[in-house]
């Protein structure tokens, strides 16, 4: 029984790894005051970039592929930063456009990679009889690191101040635009890393729509965990367990499989509604979603 529970936990953590990485990226964005709804597109582009590099040759360096995924995510996120920080466009509209651009471009450019073999994948580490991906370990370390950065460093305090009161930060000499640009691109790099996990470790292949809505769940997860990186670990395990349960129950239950496929998305709506009733949305940065114009109240 104990082994069954431990196996479920390990599997839930594995499935929750891309959610955790993408959620951390979104937290980084939003702590700086910028909403990015384009996480799904960033993950798709990151997954494609990683697979394209890793499948280019049997001798391809997988960590170079990981770096390519993060670079692709950061560069695509730069479009969002340019639109929302420099041009002060609506952050929600820009994010939705980014999601469409990212998933569309990945689907189009990835056609030639469908069905191609991956010469080697990122191998799991075996600990105590269980397999765990290096991506999972990295995600846990990044969550702890981001929590420390936001709460215990000067630059983390600067980022939070830009998300809470950019005018006050500007008066103190902070370059609000630069901080937001870096936060958006850093968040994009983490979303790209989440995509790399899918194509290099979890599925070790490329297919159109392989992100399967995980990016949208990650966006909602940010609200669910109250913009706190360490809570994101528990939230990702929770939703990872739902996906694990979905796979375990399909074929072993008279309930149609579509019901299990919809479970994570239905639960996103439920937990967001509950969070709203409890006032959890009040934890959001005060300037979240608002463009900053110097001298404007």
Automatic annotation (TrEMBL):
It is a multi-pass membrane protein. Keywords: Cell membrane, Membrane, Transmembrane, Transmembrane helix. It is found in: Cell membrane. It comes from the Bacteria. InterPro entries: ABC_transp_permease. The chain crosses the membrane at residues 9-28, 34-55, 62-83, 89-109, 130-150, 181-202, 214-247, 259-276. PANTHER family: ABC TRANSPORTER PERMEASE PROTEIN, SUGAR ABC TRANSPORTER INTEGRAL MEMBRANE PROTEIN-RELATED. This is Riboflavin import permease protein RfuD.
